[in-house]
């Protein structure tokens, strides 16, 4: 191993971030080099090589339009970040998802470009690189070395290492980079300079409100949330975005770092938005025409006057406002503390507002998982370690 590469990797191992690494098509040398320098356990949480199409699709959670593309590279990094978020559980060290999808020299001629798309995604930002290699200028080992060098350079940048060896890029190679800054957006939200912002599943910043939203604290995101969103998406025929409420009733606003960590749970697979609206009538003003996906308990609160200053007139005015904006609620059933499963039909919807609510039948979706119970189980497990 070149001494400058060894020095870079040692600096990576000595820095705080921990990574999940996923690569297909090229990049295995970067993994070998990371493992070849003592201290890799301080950097790598997990490494995945989803090489076959079925493995790649399962890791990505979808069949990509193109396996080797900038979008796919970003999604890979996002899935790796979400995995890192899950693996650290209650720990607080920094995390990064590192993804690479590439097509380089093989044992048969390729008509297309030799290229690599590499992305490094942290809760605070996503940086992506696109490399086009001069065709015929290198053998497979040479192309692999350049792609792997770029992966290590990307990880070094995310670890804050300024002293990195130069990449052996030729004049006829092409290397470009783009960055998506989530911290700035989150700080603007906290200062109320903007009412909401969103991160698309491929890491881009959203410019239009989603057609459907499932709101919550997602502390943590669990299978019940995912199953409800997927069921609602199938019923509605549109994707369902998640919304992390940056401001909740009777609670202080989420700190920027906490909000960004919550958002990172969705990276690479689902769109997610963060907004400053604690109530649904306020959310209606941010997201007109959007369908809100909720559970039975939330729907019950929406039609209770005590959540509107004990004013039935205030409650009716809020429902009318949401109806006028084209919003509606898709409501899943929920098991109560008495063990009985309750559905929308048990609620007394105020006259004239039945069309504002639609049920998700219990035969299509039921999950009684509780984020509170999951957090308690995680803490108990951490205490027993």
Secondary structure layout:
Blueprint: H1 3-13, E1 18-24, H2 28-36, E2 44-48, H3 53-60, H4 70-88, E3 95-103, E4 114-122, E5 125-133, H5 140-158, E6 174-181, H6 182-190, E7 196-199, E8 212-216, H7 223-236, E9 241-245, H8 256-264, E10 272-275, H9 280-286, E11 291-295, H10 296-302, H11 312-324, E12 328-332, E13 334-335, E14 341-342, E15 357-360, H12 371-384
Parallel strand pairs: 1-2, 1-3, 8-9, 8-11, 9-10, 11-12, 12-15
Antiparallel strand pairs: 3-4, 4-5, 5-6, 7-10, 13-14
Helix pairs in contact: 1-5, 2-5, 6-8, 9-11
Entry summary:
The chain has 385 residues and is of the alpha/beta class. Helices cover 36% and strands 22% of the residues. The chain has helices spanning 3-13, 28-36, 53-60, 70-88, 140-158, 182-190, 223-236, 256-264, 280-286, 296-302, 312-324, 371-384; strands at residues 18-24, 44-48, 95-103, 114-122, 125-133, 174-181, 196-199, 212-216, 241-245, 272-275, 291-295, 328-332, 334-335, 341-342, 357-360.
**What oligomeric state is this?**
single chain
Main sheet overview = 7 strands, mixed
| Text of the CATH class of the largest domain | Alpha Beta
**Overall CATH architecture of the largest domain:** 3-Layer(aba) Sandwich
Gross geometry: elongated
In N-to-C order, the SSE pattern is: HEHEHHEEEHEHEEHEHEHEHHEEEEH
CA-CA gap between termini: 37 Å
With strands numbered from the N-terminus, the spatial order across the biggest sheet is 7-10-9-8-11-12-15
Count the beta strands. Answer: 15
Overall radius of gyration: 24 Å
**Individual helix count:** 12
């Amino acid at each position: 191993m070149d001494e400058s590469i060894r020095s870079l990797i040692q600096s990576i191992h000595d820095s705080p971030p921990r990574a999940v690494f996923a690569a297909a098509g090229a990049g295995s040398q970067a993994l070998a080099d990371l493992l070849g320098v003592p201290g890799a356990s301080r950097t790598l949480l997990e490494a995945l090589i989803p090489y076959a199409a079925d493995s790649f699709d399962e890791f990505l959670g979808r069949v990509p339009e193109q396996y080797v593309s900038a979008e796919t590279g970003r999604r890979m990094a996002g899935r790796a970040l979400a995995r890192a978020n899950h693996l650290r559980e209650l720990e607080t060290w920094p995390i990064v998802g590192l993804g690479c999808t590439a097509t380089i020299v093989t044992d048969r001629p390729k008509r297309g470009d030799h290229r690599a798309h590499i992305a490094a995604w942290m809760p605070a930002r996503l940086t992506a690189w696109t490399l086009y290699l001069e065709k015929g200028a290198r053998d497979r080992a040479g192309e692999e070395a350049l792609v792997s060098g770029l992966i290590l350079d990307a990880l070094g940048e995310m670890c804050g290492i300024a002293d990195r060896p130069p990449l052996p890029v030729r004049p006829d190679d092409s290397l470009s980079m783009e960055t998506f800054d989530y911290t700035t957006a989150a700080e603007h939200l906290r200062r109320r300079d903007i009412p909401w912002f969103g991160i698309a599943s491929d890491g881009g910043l959203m410019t239009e409100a989603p057609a459907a939203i499932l709101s919550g604290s997602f502390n943590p995101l669990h299978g019940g949330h995912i199953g409800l969103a997927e069921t609602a998406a199938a019923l509605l025929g549109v994707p369902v975005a998640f919304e992390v409420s940056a401001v909740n009733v009777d609670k202080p606003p989420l700190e920027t770092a906490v909000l960004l960590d919550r958002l990172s749970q969705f990276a690479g697979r689902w769109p997610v938005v963060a907004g400053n609206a604690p109530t649904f009538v306020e959310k209606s003003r941010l997201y007109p025409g959007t369908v809100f996906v909720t559970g039975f308990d939330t729907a019950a609160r929406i039609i209770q006057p005590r959540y509107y200053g004990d004013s039935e007139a205030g409650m009716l005015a809020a429902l009318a406002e949401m109806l006028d904006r084209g919003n509606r609620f898709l409501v899943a059933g929920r098991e109560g503390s008495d063990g009985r499963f309750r559905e929308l039909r048990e609620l007394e919807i105020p006259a004239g507002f039945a069309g504002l609510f639609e049920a998700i039948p219990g035969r299509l979706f039921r999950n009684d998982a509780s984020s509170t119970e999951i957090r308690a189980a995680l803490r108990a497990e951490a205490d027993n370690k």
